[in-house]
Structures are given as structure tokens and as C-alpha cells.
């Protein structure tokens, strides 16, 4: 592995560039016609335009990405997150063309992408899972199984992930009404219209475990993360380690994550996601990629997770045992998005001007922003991730509050003020977290 094509954009493309430099690898950036001036384009050793602004004709086009590898001589491809990061077709085509896919092998992606089969495999390994159904095609089968499980339920896409393809249904009538649209949206979004049902928990926490697995049978975890504060299944605030877990429960979660990884034959960097309900926890899915929230684990461990991805894709052994993974302190991350919470979280686009970006002890900002850049409506609204690290959770929280206040941009709307309200709220400060956090508090925010 000598030259890596970065099949992504934004701040994750910059992270991959930095990690490749540390590993002594050449880089090739790809960009749409709308992003010629982007930072990742300027920073890479080479850059190739792969099509128009529409991501379906550029960043999501597998033939175009493979052609870019062949033209540039790239012998590896890093998908980042989002876009095609968990696409087994891309991984297979890379293999067929002699290109190293920097992620899990195609067969692992196939298993991880089938949420029902993944649940079955990890359940056989002794990992708790939520009661649910097999993939159900016919309306009659769905209704029968829904009655057996009992409402309310989650209607989920078999091939969904990352919080997408999920609907809460509270009655048989609601299920009948949502079913055709849910099936079609799953087919369009994931290429698979199959749906299944899963027990709904009213106020759980969303806790995940960062895992790393090499091709030689070694698996380690980098502790837990809490991603409970969400809006419509999309994470807003993440922290590590997950607060409020008893030592025994934390140990059981991490052990279950390792069992799940082994059950799927996992290789690479990934995240095992759970719902925590009191003393109980249940497996949700494996995200077979690097996560947006990975920096909070990095700062606790003191290692570059993207660089670990490169090493594992190259076939290197992990080179350390679980007891050598030491976590220090607490870290919290907020996602700054180009959206207007006061107008129903409508996306915001336009020319952006930077008044100030935060820094200082224990503060990290991952961003692709530059002065006068055009924020485009075609892509994910993520502008920046502000991460604060401290000896205690409270120290990290106070540092994050100060850092967010100093994050000042003009020209577009952002969710910064909402994030300030969330992390300064007494419930967040005391660690009273649940997935309905934002809904419960929204009247006062």
C-alpha cells in the first residue's frame, strides 16, 4: 500500500490525509465540480475531479472512483464515513481491481449490513438482543408479528444503519399507513426494501464500544461512548467514556462488543452499538466504519484511529493487548451543523465567514472550514466537530461550553446555540441522559 485515494470530502478527508502522511503514504483527493477550492483538494498530493455537484454522479459513483484509482495509480481506497463507507459492492470491486479497501472485507460488510442476520449471529454468541422479527415482506405477516410483539414498535430497514430507515409505530393503523412509504424509501436509500420489527424502548441510552480487529484474530476495544443526545436518530453530542455505568456493566458491554466482533469475523475499525435500559443492554448493530464521534476515543487513548485503520488494512497486527489500552480523563464532542433549529432544522447554505475558532488546552476542532467558503446544499450539513478533553467529565463539559462560545461564524445559520443550551442544561450536567432528551426538553430550549 503506497498511494491512497480518499473517496470522501470535508473534515474526514483531511483526517485521512494527515494519517496517510504519518504512515508515509501518498494521497489522491477526489472532488466534485462544486468543490474545486476545498481544503482537502489543496492539501492532497494529487486531486481528481470526479463529476458534478450531485453526489450520485460523483462521490457515490463506484465506476468513477475506480477509474480515479486507475488514472492516479492509487493502490488503496479509503471511503471515510457516510457515502460508500459500508458499501460491500465498492469493497468487492476494489478487490477485483487489486485495490486495497480500507475497511472490513466484503463478506463482513455483507453481514453487518443485514441487521437481522447480524442480530442472529451475535445472539448465538451470547450477546443480548431486542425481541424482534425476521425480514417480513407481506403486510399480513408484519401485522401478525406486530401483534405478537406488542405495540409500540420500531419499523426498521434490514439494510439501514446510522440512524436511517427507522420509524416508530404505535398502532396497527399507523403500521399499515407507514408500510408502503417505508418499504419504498428503504429500497431507494439502501437498494433493499426489506423491513423488520423490533421492540421499542421508551427512554434508553445509546452506548457504543469502539473496537479494532486485525486479520490475525486479535480484537481490542477502546472503551465506551455515549451518543444518547440525538435528534431523529441523528447524534448531536457524544462523549467517552459513557457516564453513569457501573464498572461491572461497563465490563460486560465491552466483553459483549468483542464477542459480537468475533461472531461476525470482523476485521478493521468499527463500532458495536447498544441500547442501555437500566441494568440491561441490547445489541443494535455494528457500524463497519470509522464513526463521526471517533475523536472522543482518540483523545482518551492517545492514538490516531484513522492511522490504525491504515495499518489494519495493510494486514499489520494490532501490536498491543487489551491491558495496554489505557484511557485517561473524559471527552465530549458536539457536531456543528449548517442548519437552523429555530426553523425546524432547515438546512442552511451560503458564503461563510469565520470570526473566531476556539483552541487552547484540552480543545480540539476538526473542520474543513476556510474563510469565505461556500457552504453547499448538496452534502451533509456537518461543518465542524468541537471536542473538549479534561480530567473529569465536568472539566470537559465546562471547556466545551467555553469552546462553543468562541466558535463564531457568519453568513449561515448553525445549531451552535442549541448545543450550548444542551450541554449547560442541568440534566446533561448531571448525566441524566435518554434518547428522548431533546424531545423532553425542547419546550424550554
Number of helices: 15
Quick one: overall form?
Answer: globular
Relevant CATH superfamily of the largest domain: ATP-grasp fold, B domain
CATH fold assignment of the largest domain:
D-amino Acid Aminotransferase, Chain A, domain 1
| CA gyration radius, whole angstroms | 21 Å
Approximately how much beta-strand content do the residues carry? 25-35%
Number of strands: 22
Quote the distance from N terminus to C terminus.
50 Å
Multimeric organization: single chain
Low-confidence stretches: none
Describe the structure in brief:
The protein has helices at 10-22, 39-43, 62-72, 88-96, 106-113, 115-124, 139-149, 172-190, 247-263, 294-301, 305-313, 393-406, 416-424, 426-429, 437-441; strands spanning 3-6, 26-31, 46-49, 76-78, 100-101, 153-161, 164-169, 195-199, 205-213, 219-231, 234-240, 268-277, 280-287, 330-337, 339-340, 346-347, 350-351, 353-356, 363-367, 374-375, 382-390, 408-410.
SSE map:
Elements: E1 3-6, H1 10-22, E2 26-31, H2 39-43, E3 46-49, H3 62-72, E4 76-78, H4 88-96, E5 100-101, H5 106-113, H6 115-124, H7 139-149, E6 153-161, E7 164-169, H8 172-190, E8 195-199, E9 205-213, E10 219-231, E11 234-240, H9 247-263, E12 268-277, E13 280-287, H10 294-301, H11 305-313, E14 330-337, E15 339-340, E16 346-347, E17 350-351, E18 353-356, E19 363-367, E20 374-375, E21 382-390, H12 393-406, E22 408-410, H13 416-424, H14 426-429, H15 437-441
Parallel strand pairs: 1-2, 1-4, 2-3, 4-5
Antiparallel strand pairs: 6-7, 6-8, 9-10, 9-12, 10-11, 11-14, 12-13, 14-21, 15-16, 17-20, 18-22, 19-21
Helix pairs in contact: 4-5, 6-9, 7-8, 12-13
Amino acid at each position: 500500500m503506497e498511494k491512497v485515494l480518499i473517496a470522501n470530502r470535508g473534515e474526514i478527508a483531511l483526517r485521512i490525509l494527515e494519517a496517510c502522511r504519518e504512515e508515509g503514504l501518498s494521497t489522491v483527493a477526489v472532488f466534485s465540480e462544486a468543490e474545486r477550492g476545498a481544503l482537502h483538494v489543496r492539501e492532497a498530493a494529487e486531486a481528481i475531479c470526479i463529476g458534478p455537484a450531485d453526489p450520485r454522479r460523483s462521490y457515490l459513483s463506484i465506476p468513477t472512483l475506480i477509474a480515479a484509482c486507475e488514472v492516479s495509480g492509487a493502490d488503496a481506497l479509503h471511503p471515510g464515513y457516510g457515502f460508500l463507507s459500508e458499501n460491500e459492492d465498492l469493497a468487492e470491486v476494489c478487490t477485483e481491481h487489486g485495490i486495497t479497501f480500507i475497511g472490513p472485507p466484503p463478506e463482513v460488510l455483507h453481514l453487518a449490513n443485514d441487521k437481522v442476520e447480524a442480530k442472529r449471529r451475535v445472539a448465538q454468541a451470547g450477546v443480548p438482543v431486542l425481541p424482534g422479527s425476521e425480514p417480513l415482506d407481506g403486510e399480513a405477516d408484519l401485522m401478525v408479528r406486530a401483534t405478537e410483539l406488542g405495540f409500540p414498535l420500531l419499523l426498521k430497514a434490514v439494510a439501514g444503519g446510522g440512524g436511517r430507515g427507522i420509524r416508530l409505530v404505535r398502532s396497527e393503523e399507523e403500521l399499515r399507513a407507514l408500510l408502503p412509504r417505508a418499504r419504498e424509501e428503504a429500497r431507494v436509500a439502501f437498494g433493499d426494501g426489506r423491513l423488520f420489527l423490533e421492540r421499542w424502548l421508551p427512554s434508553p441510552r445509546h452506548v457504543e464500544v469502539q473496537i479494532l480487529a486485525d486479520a490475525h484474530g486479535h480484537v481490542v476495544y477502546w472503551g465506551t461512548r455515549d451518543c444518547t443526545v440525538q435528534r431523529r436518530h441523528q447524534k448531536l453530542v457524544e462523549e467517552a467514556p459513557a457516564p453513569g455505568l457501573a464498572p461491572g456493566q461497563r465490563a460486560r458491554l465491552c466483553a459483549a462488543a468483542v464477542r459480537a466482533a468475533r461472531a461476525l469475523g470482523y476485521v478493521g475499525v468499527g463500532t458495536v452499538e447498544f441500547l442501555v435500559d437500566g441494568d440491561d443492554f441490547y445489541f443494535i448493530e455494528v457500524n463497519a466504519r470509522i464513526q463521526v464521534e471517533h475523536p472522543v476515543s482518540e483523545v482518551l487513548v492517545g492514538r490516531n484511529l484513522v492511522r490504525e485503520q491504515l495499518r489494519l488494512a495493510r494486514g499489520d497486527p494490532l501490536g498491543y493487548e487489551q491491558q495496554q489500552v489505557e484511557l485517561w480523563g473524559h471527552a465530549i464532542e458536539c457536531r456543528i451543523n449548517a442548519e437552523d433549529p429555530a426553523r425546524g432544522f432547515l438546512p442552511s447554505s451560503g458564503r461563510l465567514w469565520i470570526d473566531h475558532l476556539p483552541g487552547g488546552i484540552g480543545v480540539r476542532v476538526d473542520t474543513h472550514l476556510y474563510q469565505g467558503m461556500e457552504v453547499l446544499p448538496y452534502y451533509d450539513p456537518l461543518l465542524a466537530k468541537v471536542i473538549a478533553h479534561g480530567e473529569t467529565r465536568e472539566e470537559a463539559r465546562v471547556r466545551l461550553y467555553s469552546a462553543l462560545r468562541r466558535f463564531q461564524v457568519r453568513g449561515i445559520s448553525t445549531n451552535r446555540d442549541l448545543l450550548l443550551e444542551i450541554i449547560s442544561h442541568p440534566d446533561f450536567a448531571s448525566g441524566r441522559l435518554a434518547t428522548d432528551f431533546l424531545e423532553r426538553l425542547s419546550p424550554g430550549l
